[in-house]
User: Fold YkgJ family cysteine cluster protein from Candidatus Competibacter phosphatis.
Amino acid sequence: MMTTHVEDTGELLNATAELTIAGRKISLEMPVPAGPTRLSNLLPFLRYLTDRFVDFSVENAQAEGLAVSCKKGCGACCRQLVPISAIEARRLREVVDQMSEPRKSTILARFEEARPRLQAAGLLEKLREPNRIGDDEVDPIGLAYFQQGIACPFLEDESCSIYEERPLACREYLVVSPAENCARPTVDSIKPVPIVVRVAKTLRALNVEKNPSTPRWVALILALEQAEADAGLDEVPPQPGPALVREIFSRLSGRDAGNG
Ligand code: SF4
Assistant:
């Protein structure tokens, strides 16, 4: 069940929502743009939602006696294939562009170094065309990617160096299986925390629906080149912020979020 309310406070709106998931309530409150806006401008809002749903999901897991194994300094999962939205790829491009030297060159070099390794593994062209990857190919490609041992360019000292900017998929990935299993992940050995509402997937789907020319997902390791390829494309025309927020909530809840 979900109810939403949007209160106009000038340039920003205070959007509130109340959900009941499996008998537990979750209240959400966040500022969103009042005027016409684009999906990309709602990234802070989407991150907030993701973090709240992840916290809620972790509490559920703990209530069942499960403990999250992930902790600072463990970056095994940051060698996995991370699917992000094209919007997030563009944001990562901005994040890198805004870095000062020598860090910027170091990060750019890591992205560059990954390319020949992906090419040698026969993965580069596949990952450049995610819309051609069938559902049954995702797991084998993910495994082949992990076997290359390519660390995310933002991974430093086994920690995320862009923690506040990390993509939604990174935020949603937590495990309750032993941490050591993450070094050799299999479908059976990894037990992710079941996330009650998946914002990352919803954003990717909504983005493609609004702009069919966009890839349905982008491999994080190719985010910068994808952002460059998209540079000439504009997003779909802006929509009123409240309408866009209601549409997102409708998608997340699987029903009409109402006008509250
Ligand atoms: S962005 Fe951060 S959390 Fe995500 S894969 Fe890279 S280092 Fe890990």
